[in-house]
Structures are given as C-alpha cells and as structure tokens.
Design brief:
alpha+beta; 15 strands; 3-stranded mixed β-sheet; rod-shaped
C-alpha cells in the first residue's frame, strides 16, 4: 500500500519545503477546476490534499511516522453512515456539512459559487415621429462589462496565472474548531475560489473584467411609441460563475409631432372648418402622417369638437394586425376680420335665424 509520502512523490525524510513544493505541483495538476468531469483527477486531488494535511502538520506527521495510521489515514466518511431506514447524514443539510467538517476536515471541498444571471441594462434610442411609424434598423452603443482583454479574465498579469490559495490549500473553505465541532466557512483570502492572484493584471487591477462599449444592431418595428421597450436577449451584463448574461432593453424616445397626437394605434389631428362648412356640410382634405391626403366629408350642422374617424390611416399596430385610425377633430373657426360683403351676409343671417343657442340656459 502506498504511503502518504508516495502520494506526494517525496522521501520519508523530506523537509517541509520539499513537501509543500510537491503538494503545490500536484494540487495544481489535479485541481477539479482544471479537470472538470474527471472523477479520477478529483480522487487524486483528494489523496494529495489528505497527504499534505497530515505531512504539513508536525504533530500529525509524527503520529503517522510512529503508528502508520492515527490521523495519518483517512477514515470512513461520516456522510456515508446510515443510522437505520433511509436516513443519511446528508439529509441534515448544513448540519451534514458541520459533521463532515468534524470528521473529515482534511478533505473539505469548496462549494463552487452558484451561477448567477447577469444584470439587465437599458439603452435609449431617439426617433422622429415619422421614423416611429415607418420603423428602421440602427446601431446603438452600449457600455457593458466583459472579460479583460489583457489577462483574458483571469485577473493575473499576463505571463502569470492564479495560484493555489496558501490559506485553504485550494479547498475554498477553512475550518474553525469549536470544541467538539469544526465549522466551515469560505476562505477569507481567496473568497471561496481556491486560488489567489499574486500579481494582479495592470489593466483590470485583478478583477478580470473591464468596461467596454459594444455596438448592437437593433430593428425598430413600425408603430413604436414613446417608451416602447425592445428586448435583446443575452446582450446585457455577463453572468457570474458561468451564469447566463442579462438582457438589453432598448427604450424608444419619440419626438412629438406638430400635427398628430398619438392615442395607442390611433392618431388625432385637429381640422379647422369654416362656419359655413360646418353649418352647410362640405368635403375637405386632411393630411395623413404618410405624406398623402384623404377626403373627409363634414356633415351639415357639425358642432365644434366633433370627431370623425378615417379608418386605416393611423399608426401600425405592433402585433402586425394592420393600422389604427386617423381621427379628425373638427374645429369651427371664427374670422377675426370681416369684409363688407361677409358682414352684410351675416347680418342677413342673423335676421332670418330661428335658433336661440341660449334657450336651454333658462328652461
């Protein structure tokens, strides 16, 4: 049976420095992060870690050299103990970790940080009223966090690489004795990563990330209004620990129109008509937001503020079901100055008029 010295590849009388050097070399070689999915490498890492835990401790090494076992041999894993029925100490959740730390301190492995989704970000795109109705394709600049181009995201100065944390020896956790129990907590030096950066990258200062401006092409559909949000999936901030990226939301800001008022998919335009057109009826031309004109029939006796609907000449609907309507709000105009003939005609109308518009006030 190989000894712990054999596991580290050193002689029995090796010095503490020789043991430490051998351990670092083997731990870096078999570390789970460098061998994802390789169970044999993971088991080898455990053996190397266990051997170093014993041989790096003066008292434990003395007991191992004397008895060949004691603390020098890995005992049964309390997590595998069955206390009857289907109960297993793993069912205790965090308490299982606590007892694991008590009976098997030397092989405690770091819990890899859970993948975390990146943050969503927003970008503003300004549009003219006409472009909001037509739709367009444009490029927008967005500032996002990405992996540092200098160090490739490692955080280490180019030419160097992160090393095994000397505090937790790559486990990412440290154990603190509390009498009978040993409580495990994330390593304060490497923050649970198992590695530390001795020479931080001069550009990102060891963070492994940098802010960069990226340009994304976004298609603005016809019919957007002020405040419409367009989602670009996965174009937000990068995730943590392999988590998915967030989303980019493009928010439209539409310049108001001089003629048209937006009401959902409908557009409202105020159309002036003369007193005679409102009273007698008429056909007038109304501009549309698309540069053409449509004819509108004004019924006789039209009152100021009446709204007439012109179907299919409004804004495009975002669901692709056609266009809204153009609503003409009629405004009866009163001339500020009258010619002699206009005055005579109105005086004559006044004489023959039968309607009293204030009659309802006194009824």
């Amino acid at each position: 049976m190989p000894t712990l010295y054999d596991t580290l590849g050193v002689k029995k009388g090796a010095s503490a420095d020789e043991i430490k050097k051998a351990y670092r070399k083997l731990a870096a070689k078999y570390h789970p992060d460098k061998n994802p999915g390789d169970t044999s490498a993971e088991e080898k890492f455990k053996e190397v870690q266990n051997a170093y835990d014993v041989l790096s401790d003066t008292e434990k090494r003395k007991q191992y050299d004397t008895f060949g076992s004691a603390n020098g041999r890995r005992g049964a894993d309390p997590r595998d103990f069955n206390f009857g029925g289907n109960f297993n100490i793993n069912d205790l959740g965090d308490l299982g970790d606590l007892f694991g730390g008590l009976f098997n301190r030397g092989t405690t492995r770091a819990r890899k940080p859970a993948p975390e989704r990146g943050a969503d970000i927003e970008a503003i795109v300004n549009l003219s009223f006409e472009d909001s109705l037509r739709g367009l394709e444009t490029k927008i600049p967005v500032e996002v966090t990405t992996a540092c181009r200098e160090c490739g995201g490692t955080g280490a100065e180019p030419g160097t690489s992160p090393v095994i944390c000397p505090e937790c020896h790559g486990r990412g956790v440290v154990s603190e004795s509390q009498g009978l129990f040993a409580l495990s907590q994330p390593c304060p030096r490497c923050r649970g990563n198992g590695t530390v950066v001795e020479k931080p990258c001069h550009k990102c200062k060891g963070s492994g990330r940098e802010r960069r401006t990226r340009r994304y092409t976004v298609k603005i559909p016809a019919g957007v209004k002020d405040g419409t949000r367009i989602r670009l999936k996965g174009k937000g901030e990068v995730g943590e620990a392999g988590g998915p990226a967030g989303d980019l939301f493009v928010v439209t800001r539409v310049e108001p129109s001089r003629l048209f008022e937006r009401r959902g998919a409908n557009l409202v335009i105020e159309v002036p008509v003369t007193y005679s057109e409102a009273a007698l009826g008429a056909t007038v031309e109304v501009p549309t937001p698309y540069g053409d004109r449509v004819s509108l029939k004004v019924p006789p006796g039209t009152q100021d503020g009446r709204q007439l609907r012109i179907r299919g000449h409004g804004a495009p609907k975002l669901d692709g079901s056609g266009k809204g309507d153009l609503i003409a709000r009629l405004r009866v105009t009163v001339p500020k100055k009258l010619t002699k003939k206009e005055r005579e005609a109105l005086e004559e109308l006044k004489k023959v008029s039968r309607e009293d518009p204030r009659e309802a006030l006194f009824s």
